[in-house]
Write a structure and sequence with these properties.
eight-stranded mixed beta sheet; binds zinc ion
């Protein structure tokens, strides 16, 4: 995958601002290139331990995409206390739809492919911009 440096910075900033809650949002772009992050509300009952993307953000995204906006490439969320890899809860929640998951823990951002068989680590390169 390719990800813009400004997107990485935005993910770290959102995670830091939401701490001690998990932040979450959408990853947008085209093909293999993640060009934007759209923050969403975390509507989980216990947002310090779980995340649930505000369904309205997904509805808005699907509508924008139908009108030619950037495509939904995946989702992101933070781990305020855990490592930057999928937790047991993440594995249980994941739909296995092939989309990208970004996980932020402090300054570390990792990408994963949500495959039907589980999460596969997804190498990425950072693009200036
Ligand atoms: Zn998680």
């Amino acid at each position: 995958m390719l990800i813009l440096r400004s997107v990485l910075d935005a993910l770290r900033a959102h995670a830091a601002g939401a701490d001690p809650h998990e932040c979450c949002g959408l990853l947008l772009g085209e093909g293999l290139r993640i060009a934007a992050a759209r923050p969403a509300g975390n509507v989980a009952a216990d947002p310090s331990r779980r995340f649930e993307i505000d369904p309205q953000a997904l509805i808005d995204q699907h509508r924008a995409q139908r009108h030619g906006g950037p495509r939904l490439l995946g989702y992101y969320h933070s781990h305020p206390t855990g490592p930057a890899r999928p937790s047991a809860t993440d594995r249980a929640q994941a739909p296995g739809d092939g989309l990208v998951w970004a996980i932020i823990a402090e300054e570390t951002v990792t990408l994963w492919r949500d495959s039907p068989g589980g999460f596969d680590p997804l190498p990425y390169r950072v693009l200036d911009g």
